[in-house]
């Protein structure tokens, strides 16, 4: 009887008060019984913060999800990073570049922006929230630093799509990813040539293959530039 | 990787695994016959195929795609090899360096595809005879014609691989290798386009690609603005022109479309 009552209390505890007290939260988690729920809870906390609620800010780990949705969210995360970077370049650094280069930066900014917005729209309610970027290590007054960072992002993007293709189960999504990755490769080549003409494909092995990287490795490489913690734990392996 | 350990593990859940694999023994034999360097790349591909076949998925589609890709790579390799041998065609320095680099990649793609096809128990097609002068008689004396064709071949290659990705979805290793080639072709395409003072990306149906009317099939459909069920992606946000939207997405070509382009050089 006593046990039943306990359960009832856990069940009835309102979401807000459960989140507010660590002790009770643990009970709530036990009740839910699935770690997957953690992500949802953290999402909820984050949006509460935005509402001006004075709850302590949780480390806002964003879970990419599973299956094809998880892979598309993974792509969406990378496109968010790239789009934010080029938006900053165009806003702060265009004066460092000649006219042709300025057009290149504007075009890439547009491409990455539309990749981001497209993936967000395609994912709908499954889309991860906006990520917080961290560009504190990038010197936006230094042309070479901007270009080498751009190269890092573009090469990483190409390797990420190349490595993630095999995890997609829907052929339509696979083709869509293919439509995006070759444009990322074009960006990478053009940026590389701006750094040193002729290095457009030096990313490739002697077998003529570009790298294909696994999500965990890509996210580790990108993590220096993303403040939001990202979990790829549920991505296909 | 220990292939026998993998098969043993499978045996635990599928006692008939050896029966399934038995008729495919030659696939394993082939693994031993390829050179060490080639084997490094081909073994995962071959492994994938063995299981695909053992578990009832047709390998024919995959072999067809690989031979289709091989034909394009033969074409590119042959084109650059001949061009590099044509006296005075490609200026020394950066242009020659770039074309040599690209030629080496295309040659590597030919070898990788042949090895992969063999490791899947298939037969690589023989190298066809190409006739680049058939419609472009000054292709090996006029540097601009040569570059125009190079751009067309690279942009076609990107579209051709993209169009076949869906056919490789059941073989992870082959799909990944194809994607790894696909992005290298895109890098080549971007560089050649920049050599011609074109933008590295394709806007509209080739509006920014500076090709003669006869080469338009290479860019047909590139102006597409409908993606993934969204009718007009320029409406996704403020300031997305049709140029930006079409440049942000490359489009696939079907086998038939590619074959029609290749036939201009056969």
From TrEMBL, chain B:
<protein>
    <submittedName>
        <fullName>Ferritin-like domain-containing protein</fullName>
    </submittedName>
</protein>
<dbReference type="Pfam" id="PF13668">
    <property type="entry name" value="Ferritin_2"/>
</dbReference>
<dbReference type="InterPro" id="IPR009078">
    <property type="entry name" value="Ferritin-like_SF"/>
</dbReference>
<dbReference type="InterPro" id="IPR012347">
    <property type="entry name" value="Ferritin-like"/>
</dbReference>
